[in-house]
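Progress report, Aim 2. The chain analyzed during this reporting quarter is listed below.
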Amino acid sequence: MIFDALHYFETLARQNRLCVENGFRPAFCSGPDSIEGIMQEFQKTANFVCIDDTTDQNLFTEGVSYFKRRVYTVFILAAYRWDDMEDREEKLNLCRTIFTQFVKRMIWDKVQRENEGDDFTFLNVERIYSKEFGRYTMNGVTGLYFMVENDEPASMDYEDEKDLESEWVTETETTTEPGGETQEEGD
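Predicted structure tokens for the chain:
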């Protein structure tokens, strides 16, 4: 079963008591550049948990098995009063606490569900990268982001020659040249 990170992190944001009590709204973004669009909502909502709906991926092998590593990024953002560094520190501490609670919950969920063969088996809670935003990164907004990896088994084998032939055109078959023209063998 594939780990549904987007749904999982949205659920964390909706069910975390500090997020609920402090009005953190779950939202989706497509990379850090799209956060600017979400920040326009700060007029209506001061706090966000932004789940990046794009992932960094790589394919790697562990012995004879292949895995697809997906790296998920979550931003925890809180607005503070402009030029009020005490308010900024308070909001950053709130984001830090929420992050810690998210990590504790991920560890809990992995341990509880791993033995059930659930989709948390390959969630790498042993290594979670996080980075806080500097004082002047985003005007009037503080927070942090964290990245967590999930390694899922990936089938990179062909069962038989039929599988291979279903994905690849052989030299004896008709091929389409770039530009859409068909060329027969021997032309």
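The helical segments are 5-15, 17-21, 35-39, 85-114, 161-167. The two ends are 48 Å apart (CA to CA). These observations will guide the mutagenesis work planned for the next reporting period.
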